[in-house]
Amino acid sequence: MSSSEMTPEVQYQIAHKGDNRSANIIAAQTIMLVVAYIAVGLRVLARRVSRAGMGSDDWMMLVALVSKAQDTFSCCSYNILIPEPHSS
After folding, report:
1. What are the residue boundaries of the structural domains of the chain, listed by start?
2. What pLDDT shows up at residue 85?
3. What is the dihedral of CA 26, 28, 30, 33, to 10 degrees?
4. Rounded Cα–Cα distance for residues 79 and 87 (Å)
5. How many Cα atoms are found within 13 Å in the side-chain-facing hemisphere of 46?
């Protein structure tokens, strides 16, 4: 297929096949993990200050935080360990 037969979308993708946004992905994942830790920490602190016990919703929030941390780790390690594609 010659370049004159390709759609503009295909030509754009071929021209930008070496673009890499892994730094943006890592930054976004890390920022959101920090925000999640702050939110959960403030919630636990509020529960302690108000002397209210930890409810089932609080425990589920901690489980979700662990899941988010695992997601962030796997996403960031994938973007760090997979080398950038080389343009030919």
Report:
1. 22-81
2. 59
3. -140
4. 18
5. 8
